[in-house]
Specification:
The chain is an all-alpha fold. The chain has 14 helices and no strands.
Length: 289
């Protein structure tokens, strides 16, 4: 009886071993099919439609004055939002991981709000706050300050949407590393800045860069919140995603896809940098071990 049971177990294991490669390749095939349908084919469609009428019309759509204004505004917004959120992310992650204080869990929850709230709702909140009929509207109007339907509103909305990315990348890294190295540096007489630049920053640099890349990609591609607060004023408050929407709604498909291809290129570059940073991070982690 025991011999027969042993034979059955052995045969079952052998059949499972034979099925393992089939299951592996089946799962890989499903994953690749999903990526092909929902990522690669749409990307190819964007570039094919953008170049459908020739390279001349492609570049003409990109260097058109309204398109250039949208590109400049998108770059300006990212140049403001990314450094501010990088500074905030480092400070917040430092405070959360290195100190114990009342309300820490509340602070972490507040940091996650942009992930939980729809960007459109976030834009509406800023309209209710800074709009003409909003809470601060009369004060802003009396002092000739315009936020909604102007560049400041776009920057504020982008700051809100993108501020969790850096801090959320740094918190796990800092928690894993602990504070022993910083305490040793302080014991040896290092100042706060010396401790940060010589001890903390080298340990978090790849995670910090990873967060900056994601923050920048979201800042340039944000649509919902920016759409609500921008006013869609051509040449003034349109970012690249908003300009693409306007061109598409006007049935100017070639120009819309041409400008959209810039965002697609941004996504590809972001993925390349993201892969490089992940590879560097894993390599450093293996080197430390």
């Amino acid at each position: 009886m025991e011999t027969s049971n042993l034979v059955e177990v052995t045969s079952t294991r052998a059949s499972s071993f034979k099925l393992a490669p089939i299951r592996k390749w089946l799962l890989i095939g499903v994953a690749l099919s999903f990526l092909g349908i929902f990522i690669f084919i749409p990307l190819l469609a964007v570039f094919s439609e953008a170049l459908k009428k020739g390279i001349g019309l492609y570049f003409a759509a990109i260097i058109e004055p309204d398109a250039l204004a949208a590109i400049k505004l998108t770059l300006l917004t990212a140049l403001i939002a990314v450094p501010v959120n990088t500074l905030f992310g480092v400070i917040a992650a430092w405070g959360i991981t290195k100190f114990n204080f009342k309300g820490k869990n509340i602070l972490i929850t507040l940091i996650d709000i942009p992930f939980a709230v729809s960007p459109v709702i976030a834009g509406l909140v800023f309209v209710l706050l800074f709009g003409t009929s909003g809470v601060l509207g009369p004060f802003l109007e009396a002092n000739n300050m315009k936020i909604i339907f102007a560049v400041p509103g776009i920057v504020i909305a982008t700051l809100f949407i993108t501020f969790p990315f850096v801090v959320r990348e740094l918190i796990p890294i800092m928690q894993e590393q602990g504070s022993e190295e910083e305490q040793a540096a302080l014991t040896l007489g290092a100042s706060g800045l010396q401790m940060f630049f010589r001890v903390t920053l080298p340990n978090i640099k790849w995670g910090l860069l990873y967060g900056i890349i994601l923050c920048n990609a979201r800042a340039m591609g944000e649509f919902g919140a920016v759409s609500v607060v921008s006013g869609h004023i051509r040449g003034l408050t349109n970012t690249v995603p908003l300009h693409v929407e306007i061109l598409y709604n006007e049935y100017n498909f070639s120009a819309a896809f041409a400008v959209a291809s810039l965002l697609a290129l941004l996504a590809i570059v972001t993925l390349v940098f993201k892969s490089i940073v992940e590879w560097k991070t894993k390599r450093n982690n293996h080197g430390e071990r």
